[in-house]
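To: structure subgroup
Subject: Chain for Friday's discussion

All,

I'm putting the inputs and outputs inline so they're searchable in the archive.
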Amino acid sequence: MTRLFEKTYPDPGVAPGHGARAPGPAAEVRAWQYREQQLEEYSGQSALEQALPTDGDGFVWIHLQGVPSPGQLEQIGTAFGLHPLALEDVRHQGQRPKVDYFDSHAVIILNQPGLAQDGIILDQVNLFVGARFVISIHAGEQDPFTPVRQRMRSHSRSFNRLGAPYLAYALADVIVDQAFPLMERLGERIEELEESVLANPGSDTLAQVHTLRRELLVLRRQWWPTRDVFARLLRDDVDPFGLELAPWLRDIHDHTIQIMDLLESYREMATSLTEAYLSAVNQRSNDVIRVLTIIATIFIPLTFLVGVYGMNFAHPDSPWSMPELYTYYGYPVLWGFMLAVVALMLYLFRRRGWL
């Protein structure tokens, strides 16, 4: 869960766009130049120089996988005229999803959710969108944009007709749709926890419910502004996003609404899981108390009679006298028997889950 709350900040007093970047190696660079349904691909650090923006038809897509180094940010910032404040958001990971408009480009910041062994992770995605270029920066280890490249290689007409803004839509759509498999997995976890709460409401189950609620809260904090990002893109109608792209943006906005509906439903179900756990624990405690009360009630009159008369019936001529009173090791044997009874009762209580 630590990656959910990681955030890097600039040093106090540092000028915007400067300061130490997030730790890690330099990003891997790949570039594609799409012109008249012809796709040229470049890789390596030289890709930034080979795929520069042109004044003709087509567009350029540069993708950086990982957190870029200061040199890489300076190079792409100079080549494409990117605003220093937008580059600062790349340096300092953990940004809130948002969209900003500048003179020659727009900047979209999203967070891609994913599953890891220790829970949910969030990888920041920065999209710089101009009239003839798209720069995508994905901070995670795995590149999620392989399906988009396959569509470009198949010479989709939408890329040729709508250009760079449509590519930005396709990249954002991949990031948003990554949430649906995650939501499906969270739904399965909720079903498993429901069965566990009803069958065996232990402390481990309660810890899993609290972890689930925390993850849902973090996802809600991410997807609420993500929905606002695409609502603003639809509402503002600012270049490079125009009316032709509105149906595609509306589709992403609909997906974010579906995700938010699922999140709200899952949060309510997680809250009801906590209430069900407390009810199950209380019911189980009542069952234990009822059994112990019955046992105690049975022995109350017996204890009363023993307290009144005692158990030291001894008469030298009576065959009904207690022979244990004259046993040489009777006292330590009695203590051993009582301790054995206590140990047996503790064992049975623990086995039944009462302790």
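Points worth raising on Friday:
Strands lie at 28-35, 38-43, 59-65, 98-101, 105-116, 119-130, 133-138.
The two ends are 31 Å apart (CA to CA).

D.
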